[in-house]
Design goal:
The protein has helices at about 1-15, 20-35, 35-55, 65-75, 80-90, 115-120, 125-130; strands at about 100, 110. It is mainly alpha-helical and about 140 residues long. About 25% of the residues are buried.
């Protein structure tokens, strides 16, 4: 899965004319260290975050659940052990792709970092997961 993500990063950055050796080395290092479970939870968090970002916010209603709460629930519903989900997202913090929210409304909720949002522009996490047989 890591090689698939690296290939997607190379192709995506090349298409966007952003393939610079020094910058790609940092991306490659990050992607190469991810475990399969970390890719799954990061991909799920990213997917839900992007879906929520596309929806207009209606101030007359309650705010949507945090992306991490939804992603976690989805992963557990798909059969991933809840302790493994939490352990994997916690371990993934070392990459800088996610962080724990610090504001009053998202305290304790994992969020995609700007680094992940930038990476997501050139790497299709969902396609990599689908090719591994993961939703």
């Amino acid at each position: 899965m890591n090689l698939r993500l690296l290939a997607k990063a190379i192709a995506g950055q090349y298409r966007a004319s952003k393939l610079v050796a020094d910058e790609f080395l940092a991306v490659a290092d990050t992607l190469a260290t991810l475990t399969r479970e970390e890719v799954i939870v990061i991909g799920a968090l990213y997917r839900v975050h992007m879906l929520q970002a596309q929806r207009p916010v209606d101030l007359g209603t309650t705010l949507p659940e945090h992306a991490w709460i939804v992603a976690q629930r989805d992963l557990i519903a798909e059969g991933m052990d809840s302790d493994l989900v939490r352990a994997s997202i916690t371990m993934a913090q070392r990459t800088g792709l996610i962080f724990v929210g610090e504001t009053m409304d998202d305290q304790g909720a994992f969020r995609p970092s700007p680094k992940l949002l930038e990476l997501g522009r050139t790497v299709d996490f969902q396609d990599a997961l689908r090719r591994e047989g993961i939703r």
